[in-house]
Design a protein that fits this description.
Elements lengths: L1 H20 L3 H13 L22 E3 L6 E5 L15 H4 L7 E3 L22 E3 L21 E3 L6 E2 L13 E3 L4 E4 L13 E3 L4 E5 L2 H5 L6 E3 L4 E7 L11 E3 L4 E5 L13 E5 L4 E2 L5 H4 L1 E6 L2
Parallel strand pairs: 2-3, 3-4, 4-5, 5-7, 6-8, 7-9, 8-10, 9-11, 10-12, 11-13, 12-14, 13-15, 14-16, 15-17
Antiparallel strand pairs: 1-2
Subcellular location: Membrane
Keywords: Glycoprotein, Leucine-rich repeat, Membrane, Receptor, Repeat, Signal, Transmembrane, Transmembrane helix
Protein name: Receptor like protein 21
Amino acid sequence: MGINTSFCWCFILVLLWFQSQGCLEEERAALLQIKDSMGSYLSSAFSNWYVKECCDWEGVVCDPSHTRIQRIFFPHLRSDDSKPWFPNATLFAEFKDLQELELPGNHIGGFISIQAFRKLKHLRKLNLRDNSIQNGSNLWWGKYLSLYNLDLSGNKLQGNFPDSLCANLFLRELILSRNNLFGSINSCLGNMITLRLLDLSENQFNGSFPSLLISNLTNIESLVLSSNEFQGMISLCVFANLSRLSELDISFNHLEVETEMMSPSCSPSFRLSTLSLGGCNVKKIYPWMFHNITSELWLK
């Protein structure tokens, strides 16, 4: 009995010791430098950053030992009239165990010393949506990271599908909507077979619909390619073998859509919750569409 009691006390003391360690000084200093580099921010931002323990600061999440920072979430902290912010990536590289970095809506124009992102070996989620990033070279570090989730929607990316993203074969969610991307989609997309969500909507991708590439994405659950410039005829048979597909949106392209899926080689293995074909020339409505769509069917 005494041995068990002693063990319990030792265990509690170890836990208390870990809890008392606090965040590392170099990570605390890096956070303060990131804050200062913003230049201007809303008066409500960083409201509790006066306490010493940075693991308790707003927008910061540490590991269970309360030592290493694992998540940084600074959403929409800078005012609408702020000048573009160019954060120094070397500051974020101080967070060796960082898993999630979210900086949406902060007027980010790009990063200084972008190569420093290569040090973030544990980074799995990167959210930079609703910023002002326009130079695709700011994404070259993508091939050095093993990201699961990447959101670059609502930026000013220009040109073709970024080649640097092609080497990231672990991506589960890729969101590039609301940019200025154009041309045909890079063939490397067909190799990103771990994708579950792909959103390339509201760009200017053109040419023939990338049917062959899409058919390789066997784990895809949500596919959103609406409001682009794809043209020509497409058969929904392209998606027949995507058994996990639940959301399909190819609306507002210049497409003529053949919806018949009656042959043995073209029997839908999915059960969609949403099918959006608005703005397309849909040749005919078939009964399967009503049996295999559980929530929403948009044709206009």
